[in-house]
Amino acid sequence: MQKSMTAEDIVDYCYQCGKCSGKCPLGHVMKSPRVLIQEILLGEDVANSKDIWRCLTCNECTVPECPMSINFAEFIRTVRTNAVREGYLNFRETHHEIFKTATRLMANPDIKPNKLLNWPEDAKISKEGETALFVGCLEFFDNVSYFDDMGTNYGSISPDAVRILNELGEIPVVLEDEKCCGHDVLWSGDEETFQKLAEYNTVAFKKANVKRIVTTCAECYRTLAIDYPNYVPDFDFEIIHLSEFLAKKIDEGQLEFPRHFNRVVTYHDPCRLGRHMGVYDAPRKVMENIPGLTLQEMKKSKEKALCCGVSSWLNCDDYAKAIRVDRLTDAQNTGAQILVNTCPKCEMHFNCLKCEKGEDKPLDFTKIEVMDFVTLVAKALGF
Amino acid sequence: MLEVDRHPNVEVMSYSEVKSVSGVIGDFTVMVEHKPRYIDDVKCNGCGNCSTVCPVYAPNEFDCNIGPRKAIYKPFAQAVPNIVTIDMDHCIKCRLCVKACELEAINFDQRPKVTELHIGTIIVATGFEEYKPYGIYGYGEYENVITQNEFERLLAPNGPTLGHLRRISDDKAPKHIAVLQCVGSRDRTKNLHCSGYCCMVGIKNAKLAKLHDPDTEITVCYMDIRAAGKDLEEYYTRSRKHKIKYLRGNVSEVAEDPETKNLILTVEDTLSNQIKTIEADLVILSAAMVPGEGTVDIANLLKLERSPDGFIKEFHSRLSPIDTKVPGIYLAGACQGPKSVAETVASAKGAAAAASGPLITRKYEMELIKAIVDDERCSSCTLCVLSCPYDAITMDESGIAKVNEVGCRGCGTCSSVCLSSAITLRYYRDGQLEAYIDALLAQDVVTEKVAAEEEAGG
Questions:
Q1: How confident is the model at residue B25 (pLDDT cuts 50, 70, 90)?
Q2: Beta-strand relationship, A131-134 and A212-215
Q3: Of A129-143, B57-71, B93-107, B412-426, minimum mean pLDDT range
Q4: Domain B371-427: assigned CATH number
């Protein structure tokens, strides 16, 4: 999607068939994608509409089945950017906006994130080299201890990823002062902050002579692969998700899992990795190559995978919870012990539902553990 | 079909394939391969004794693979010629049919036979196929999701259910039928063209189902009903008297109830902005009209172009839809593009008239834009012979390139590859083009043109 495309440009082929509306997880409670598109095409002002912020940007509506190949998430992103430019901020932030505030602070050139403060010594990293690992917000999630009570282990994901890369003979670059990829501010319409972050990271990776960036997070992957080249013209790195990297190494015969890891797992396709980037098979391929591991598919998987309910820290409400209940029920019904996913946000949202306390706790989801793909692979390799 | 077969001026070659076509209008040489039926077509009278004894069943292609046929079979009751064929992919060579045939018409030693034909003009009428929407709305996965063609076989008196409307999964009469329009057509990811005929087929079949059982509930999910054409809007209007429900919306999802095998449809009624869930026990997909499987081969054989939708390209889609760029080859029916029955009949009659014209008058008018060779410059390198897409250039006895002016279509490929500049194209000779360029570059013309464009806002 070209940055120069206007919202009308993205949707001008729409002939109002309504196929998207029935697929939208929130189709019953917000203006359907079709109606939003029609309003734009008729030149109405939607900047002050709540519905443009309610959209989960999960793209379940239009990928892959929209007859006119419209990318609805891109459309919403453009509409939001325009709304913010016009000064309308008609959305409800979650967590008192702490995450986006942190991102905006980070965009200040004088603030250095110092990501390697608690870095374990056995995960070998270098300062310069061809391959880099993009760490993203994981350290930050862990260091502010915001999600400790949910039993997440964000701090170990990046070191684990480095250990896996070390095992394959790669000593990746991890930048000490790498900043947030800017995904959430971009999808909240804040282009200005995003532009600063994108430019900063591009320069930092160029300085370290990096040619290829590996990501563990689905959101970082999408942002680096699609949005960075749109905003920073000289961003010319090869972007690859760790699951793709590992799948390639399995094909080349360089990665084998020596030990049995007897678990039944199911895989949740995050929207950013699946429908946005089209990566469905790589994580499955890696998991299928772990001896003893059984992969059970959920009813709704791959292109049809349901969203986790929230994106970009916007509008966490009862509807979001209902979607999560659906998703976790689907996962638990497969009989799996572990729900694997490649997006830390999905992981957080599912864990949040699992840890919910009180009388209106919807269902018991204690039987299923939510785990990041990297953690699973690291465990299978015995780290 | 029988009428055609009996016409003294028509020879029908069924179960045959065109293998090669060469020559030009008035002098085409066509090689036709007759596939072996393993039946003596003179002796066989189509009595069907052999099919009765044959122990092998195979899917019945004529019934869209719903229901069986034998390995020795007649494709359908009114087949022309009225004789049987052995399907060697399924035949187990038990020879029970040989014993049953009183006319001794069965011959397992038949081999393909090739006939050479010398003909003046050719009409291509290879028709269309229904798009097979595998993977869309559970077609191929759910038993009760079928296409319009399959539904027509279920309705047909000579079809697999002998004209009784029954579901495939449990042989029960459907109580709620959903008809889904625009499946695989008007879709940038599949076929962008509108097939045109599906709206009317959908309405017609909905009406037929209502005639079988007026209590059947029928919902037609459509995007636009395109009933353009004589009497068609009237037909659509009349169909409303049959209490057919028309819902404007493209169905989002079809899911199957594993127990009842009923189908649950999620669809937005785009006229009321409501998302509805419909339970239907039979779903019929109005699938696109696409070119038949062999269209690529026949287009390659005849050196015809194809349009982006895969159909054979006509000379001009609006002004000359029957002619092709090859003189003497004409198009009839849906091989050129989606057509209704009425349009097909019109196009067929037009093609017949166009094809007989040159044969009766023994004249063919053509444009003069053809390649011409300057004999003195030709170096006999044969590059032009190799480059000509239409095989219109040969080398004569003295080694000079010679253009067959009837076969040449003035594409100019030869003149651009000719190293000695010996071939030029009439109307496009270097001197003529240079004069064009000089005129265009003349100061006042260019400035006038730029000024005109600026004035027009471009």
A1: very high
A2: parallel
A3: A129-143
A4: 3.30.70.20
pLDDT(B442) > 90: no
pLDDT-derived band at B168 (thresholds 50, 70, 90) equals confident
Measure the CA–CA gap between B52 and B97, rounded to whole angstroms. 9
pLDDT at A3: 64
Q: Which of A19, A35, A64 sits opposite B273 (nearest CB)?
A: A35
Of B211, B209, B181, the C-alpha closest to B196 is B181
CATH 3.50.50.60 in chain B, residue ranges:
130-290
Q: How confident is the model at residue B63 (pLDDT cuts 50, 70, 90)?
A: very high
Question: What six digits make up the tokens of B134?
Answer: 């595998």
Q: Do A21 and B186 touch (CB under 8 A)?
A: no
Q: How many beta-carbon pairs below 8 A join chains A and B?
A: 62
Listed residue (B298, B329, B292, B291) closest to B406, CA to CA: B329
Res. B79: pLDDT tops 60: yes
CB A309 within 8 A of CB A340: no
DSSP-assigned letters across all residues of B296-327:
HHHHHHTT--B-TTSSBP-SBTTTBSSB-SST
CA–CA distances in Å: residue B111 to residues B8, B35, B39? 28, 7, 11
Question: Which residues in chain B (203-232) have CB-CB distances under 8 A to chain A?
Answer: 223
Confidence check: pLDDT of B328 > 80: yes
Check residue A359 and give its pLDDT.
67
Which chain A residues have a beta carbon less than 8 Å from that of B253? 22-23
Categorize the per-residue pLDDT at B115 as very low, low, confident or very high, splitting at 50, 70 and 90.
Answer: very high
Distances (CA, A) of A272 to A187, B99, B291: 12, 68, 37
Q: Nearest residue on chain B to A31, judged by CA atoms?
A: B273
Fold of B130-290: FAD/NAD(P)-binding domain (3.50.50)
According to CATH, where is 3.30.70.20 located in chain B?
371-427
Give pLDDT tens digits for A128-183. 999 999 998 887 777 665 676 777 788 889 999 999 999 999 999 999 889 999 99
Query: What CA–CA distances, in Å, run from A17 to A52, A67, A191, B72, B150?
Result: 20, 9, 32, 47, 25
In the predicted model, is pLDDT for residue B192 greater than 60?
yes
Burial class for A53, CB neighbours closer than 10 Å (0-12, 13-18, 19+): buried
Q: Which residue of A has its CA nearest to B185?
A: A67
Residue B362 has what DSSP assignment?
Answer: -
CA B361, CA B364: separation in Å to the nearest integer? 8
Q: Contact, A20 vs A32, CB < 8 A?
A: yes
Half-sphere exposure (Cβ direction) of B189: Cα atoms closer than 13 Å: 13
Domain borders along chain A are 7-85, 95-248, 256-381
- Distance between the two ends of chain B, CA-based, in angstroms? 58
Closest CA to A322 of A62, A29, A61: A29
The answer to whether residue B421 scores a pLDDT higher than 60 is yes
Measured at the CA of B152, the angle between CA B150 and CA B154, to 5 degrees, comes to 75
Strand locations in B51-112 (E): 57-59, 68-70, 72-73, 85-86
What average pLDDT does the structure give for chain A?
90
Class of domain A7-85: mainly alpha
Q: What average pLDDT does range B185-198 have in this prediction? A: 94
Q: Domain A256-381 adopts which CATH fold? A: Rossmann fold (3.40.50)
| Alpha carbon separation from B72 to B58, B93, B95, B106 (Å, rounded) | 10, 11, 11, 10
